[in-house]
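Notes for week 9. Today we move from apo structures to complexes. The key idea is that a small molecule is not decoration. When we ask for a structure prediction with zinc ion present, the ligand SMILES becomes part of the input, just like the chain. The input block below holds both the sequence and the ligand string. Read it once before you look at the output, and try to guess where the molecule might sit.
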Amino acid sequence: MHNSGNNSRYSRQILLEEIGAEGQASLHNQKVAIVGVGALGTVAAELLARAGAGNLILIDRDVIEESNLQRQTLFSEKDLGKNKVAAAEQRINEINSEIKVETHAIHLNPQNIAVLQSANLVLDCTDNLQTRFLINDYCKKEQKPWIYAAAIKTSGYVMPFVPGGPCLQCFLAESNLETCDTVGVLNTITVSIASLQATLALKMLLGKEVEILLYHYDIWNQNFKKLNIKKKENCPACAGNYSHLEKKETSKFIRFCSAGKYQVLGNKELDLAKIKERWEKIAPVIDEGSCLQVQNITLFKDGRALINANSIEEAEAIYSRLVGN
Ligand SMILES: [Zn+2]
């Protein structure tokens, strides 16, 4: 570790009048939660860690696949199959060992969303509206600032939210809930959108004024727009009706974006050591501490599993055979 005092690592940033020595020191005490450590989350986490934002909470439910490597900049081929938060933590430690990283390999839901409690700022780097509305309700209720970001094909959106201002439900309808993209995405737009999100994050952490606007960037056509969003009359979240914090998952099985991948929601704490012993009689087991992997199943401590299968029925069968009911 080359820890040469406070000035060398951040010298180029301290020179900026926007940050300075005082701003740099204050960044060290900040805590940012990043929900989703994928195309946007890996970039935002890396930039904030390099910039010296002292504490990061990383939340992601998934493992790393080959198709992620095109744009998820914290990961490389040696990480394939690992859970995203563990691999991201390891890489961030290599980049800047001064940063404290807390990880949660969970599917964020109303029951566990209090993991965001200690964060000064929440970054939405997810790929689905359900989780975004959940973050929106939680942050509205807790009066926590957060930043929405989304990218698809060659363009993307970013919008900061602060207590008292408009919220996500003021302009996004629940009717077009989609869980994933099947249309592709350019890596230059995900990196650009995450950079804009991280820049707004730095400004907010430093207590600077940010314009509460919806930013839209189409990088293929070099088109950048700022859109005004007004508080919507009758917006449920703005009226204090936090329906997404009360929702229960209706099914134990959730189909994932990538074809042939299913998530089974867990409902009890498992003894992974015991299960590992059992599984080792069947096939080689990869033990990552927070999760176990054998054949086509990755199992987490809380009973949640990711399964590659051809149908829900097959996923269900694999789960009950290897984990139980
Ligand atoms: Zn609203």
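Residues 166-167, 169-170, 231-232, 235, 237-238 surround zinc ion (CB under 6 Å).
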